[in-house]
Amino acid sequence: MSFKNKSLTSEDFIALNRTGENFKSVLNGLFTQFPQSAHSISGMSQWLDYNKSNCQRILNALQKSKNGKEVLTLLPGISGLDEFILKLKETSLQKQHVLELENVVQVFNQQIKLYAKSHAHLKRLLSGNEPKSSSQAVTLSAQQKRNQHFLCSKQLLSSSIKTLFSCYVLTENQNNKEFLQEVVMISKLGIERSKASPPFVQLYTHPNPEGFIAPDNVTVSSKIDTTQFQIGIVDEFSDPNLASAYSSFSASNSGIVFNDLESDAPFNASFLFSNPDQLANPLVHQSKCSSTSISIKSPTEKLVMMVFLDKKLDMRSSVNVGCYSNNQRVEEGKLRASDMWTERLPEFPELNVLHLGSERARVIDQVQVGEMSDYLFNYSNLNKEDFVCYMMEVEYPIWSSTYRIYFEHC
After folding, report:
1. With bands split at pLDDT 50, 70 and 90, how would you rate the model's confidence at 66?
2. What's the pTM?
3. 80, 122, 78, 97: which is closest to 25 by C-alpha?
4. Inter-CA distances, 50 with 47, 65, 96, Å
5. 371 and 378 Cβ atoms separated by less than 8 Å
6. I need a labelling partner for 190 at 20 to 30 A (CA). Which of 25, 107, 333, 380 fits?
7. Separation between Cα atoms, residue 50 and residue 40, nearest integer Å
């Protein structure tokens, strides 16, 4: 095969990215078995009697990569990886984990031969321009495909949401440093439903407090109770008939049910959650990882997801983002982003750091995101200036998927 002027297609890029994510997952599994003294470059080199430069590359691939592509560009070459495996076999590490590494190195070697002249050549291809389509024929863009998926899903379910705005505030729980205090607003704007639609349900995962009867009515004067889980309807950003349409709590799918919404016109429904004891604090938890996610339960035209992370947490974290199939339950504190590579969909949402003084921090497509996030901070008794805001916008997010932002802390 001639590699002259060869470039990677979108399909090639996805296959290579998946190999890189698999690589990182396997390395993480091995690294957790290393003695603490081998968690540094010099410590690993001394423990394994292995080249320091390659130790640095392996640690960079493990700790500094944001996606599978970066893992493959940061790793040593095949000969360096083969030597790494030989050194690992001389230790008392579990054989199964070393075998998994052998398998993924073999796949990586085959891909290098398939796509490039060498590892260095493959790194240049991965660092080059955006991947091309594998066909010369006119093909739909990813957004056009998601648009078609939205239109079909909307017809199938007889319901849709114009904009799903989810806003999260994450800081250390001052009452119990084992957990993060999470405060969330989920706002579904421009909801359309037909009489054939199933009941409108707002799902969540936290058990209800003892004596729960119905969600609270949250207003601008409401304040957080950091000692217990709270859920409420945000009056200012919801249809005035929403609270009276509350029917029941569905224990089978953990959600509040609204069954008597008779309006034929689009309506808004906004909810506020305060969660003091479900998210492990990555600064003290052994996993060193936390994540925030939103599941697309209804066909949706636009997703706007904002995560405000306390600067004390942010300064010690790296950020990862992905779209995942919706059938994977993630136990808090148990899974890293790399552990989810088998469920990751070939969808690459963009994550941005949002400057709080920018126009997009105030209004996005006529949605008053600044006013709504200010409302959340007022409820939480927190100062927005103490936080870094990460934002993801997705046109036509994939129905029945989960968009997840990971924070991995060092």
Report:
1. confident
2. 0.73
3. 97
4. 8, 22, 21
5. no
6. 380
7. 13
